[in-house]
Design goal:
By secondary structure, this protein is an alpha/beta fold. The chain contains 23 helices and 14 strands. The structure holds adenosine-5'-diphosphate. It comes from Confluentibacter flavum.
Amino acid sequence: MANEKKNIKENKPKFNPYWIYGIALAIFIGFQIFNSSGYEDGGITNPTEFFKFVENGDVDKVEIVNQRIAKVYLTKEAEAQEIHKKSKPNTLLPTATRLPNYKFEFGELEIFQNKLNKVIEDSNLNLEPVYITEENHLTDFLLGLLPFILLIGVWIFIMRRMSGGAGGGAGGQIFNIGKSKAKLFDQNTEVKTTFKDVAGLEGAKEEVQEIVDFLKFPEKYTTLGGKIPKGALLVGPPGTGKTLLARAVAGEAKVPFFSLSGSDFVEMFVGVGASRVRDLFKQAKEKSPSIIFIDEIDAIGRARGKNAMSGSNDERENTLNQLLTEMDGFGTNTNVIVIAATNRADILDKALMRAGRFDRQIFVDLPDIRERKEIFEVHLRPLKKEKDLDLDFLSRQTPGFSGADIANVCNEAALIAARNGKKFVDKQDFLDAVDRIIGGLEKKNKIITPSEKRAVAYHEAGHATVSWMLEHAAPLVKVTIVPRGRSLGAAWYLPEERLIVHPEQMLDEMCAALGGRAAEKVMFDKISTGALSDLEKVTKQARAMVTIYGLSDKVGNLTYYDSSGQNEYGFTKPYSEKTAELIDKEISDIIENQYRRAIKLLEDNKDKLTELAEVLLVKEVIFKDNLEKIFGSRPFVVEDREGPAK
Ligand code: ADP
């Protein structure tokens, strides 16, 4: 890593703002030395001693300088005394240039004066303090200068901070604010990631492999008249391995690789982003063939002109415009390829995606069951695990997990095994890790009253019972009433990985989700706040059915979804008030129908529900087998999906 820094920053001017601090310090020290030049000084004393001298009649004259310092001149006789040995003798000098024998600061003038007067009176002396003002022009001048020096120091400090060059110690970043902040990986900095470390993602890997090929053997493609693409956009949910893929490209291509994040362009000064883009491309061209990788490009690539009102996105637009210009500007022979990653392709500006810029879009999706197995294989390599660990089982248990989640499961499992003092990581550790990642930490000592526990048990048993009865509801894996994270209990399913979903499937799932609240109603004739997350899920799903997927008869085959993301409906809805009412009615009807259906199902199977809940109360965790024992094999009560009449 040290090398990257060196590569980018080696030409910076040798300017060190610390000299300002140095000068200030030197002036200050010099001033101190000058001011306290030994010759002028008297010996040091303090007020108590001084008053004693006055009482003894040793003092010839007292000067009060600048209302702060007393200078004491002794009489000739006193000076000869042993007690005044430490004073500076002065009687040898001519009277005019006489220097004080003692000097001290007395603090509050008035108190000192009063005390002195009292001593003089008491001792009946003839001593009158002389008041003088001494001016020190140099001090005044320097004190006047100090604020400016401080101000300049603070300014330089802030500039250094803003140019992001806090690290490294050397100054000069004040001139670097418009320079690109990309990290450079090249021959000197080894990137160890290769395509072997990227599991699954066959399609995406093939595409990026081709990019590596373009850079290594451009002639192969250009001899036939083809043009080498300028950019590729990796699109996909977070944690699916986009960054990993880009890093693997760097590792494989062995060409200079500039890596930065979209937000690195953004700074509080206008014009800095654009200037950084220019600088980045300049550097990349100098080192071509090379790759520029921009992570989270949505930070700058968001569609322009959406918030025309706020006017605050000018700077981002300028940055984006500069990026577009640069991508247009370099010819196909410059051999610089830009790879960008985002998980929000829908909000990107259309201009970014037109041919000639990011002409390739590579989708990096959540892994399917086979890919999950491969990812497990990659991340299990460094672990000490039990011999016949069933990878198929693990990948079946982790639907919807991204590569990053799986990496996390493996790590978490190893930690759990270590905590339990095991020599190998076994299947149970993995299952615990999955539970922990989905549900959060187990909270065994959370205080729950027996009646709350009962309610939770019936709620979860309700989910389990309803989903057991419905054909399309996801099969249940386990039900638990051990509190975890923020939830008091959970029923876990193994959803089928479907690409298209039919309305019946959605309705069955909603019915199962409402099973918890329905069970509370059926058993206790009371409902509770415990169903919040179920209701949220169901409401979202019903709204999507009506307004996005066009699955409602009454609203019809239309959608209010806008994939371009160019229109964000703020206060204006794309439908009339009347339609809005219809939509609300439809959503509410769908949910109510499913709720009634769940209630009916549970009423019909009340005995089984009770049995299950009681088992759950004892065991706290039950699995599919327990359900089979109670219910027999899944009966599939395919009811009228519209639900029973009101
Ligand atoms: P993204 O950039 O898509 O948000 P990352 O590339 O940063 O995700 O992935 C985070 C981590 O997840 C990686 O460092 C890696 O450990 C793991 N990971 C993700 N996808 C895969 C994969 N296909 N194969 C192996 N590991 C993966």
